[in-house]
Write a structure and sequence with these properties.
The protein is an all-alpha fold. 65% of the residues lie in helices and 0% in strands. It contains four helices and no strands. The radius of gyration is 11 Å and the shape is flat. The two termini are 17 Å apart.
């Protein structure tokens, strides 16, 4: 997650970085942060909105791992 934060400072509008950070936060049980990252990724990349929307809908499910882009 720390490494993704560094990457995010260099490419702040890259939806994949935000999506992956959201997936990591979800695994760590930090669902509020995951929601923020997924929402930001959703806003940045309209063509992948279905995948991000699915991740948002499954946010409360602990046993589901998010797919990357």
């Amino acid at each position: 997650l720390r490494e993704l934060e560094i990457v995010r400072t260099h490419v702040p509008k890259e939806a994949q970085v935000h999506f992956k950070a959201g997936a990591i936060c979800k695994k760590l049980g930090r669902k509020d942060e995951a929601l923020r990252y997924f929402t930001f990724a959703y806003d940045l990349d309209p063509k992948d909105n279905n995948q991000i929307k699915n991740a948002l809908e499954r946010l409360e499910q602990d046993d589901v791992e998010e797919d990357s882009f």
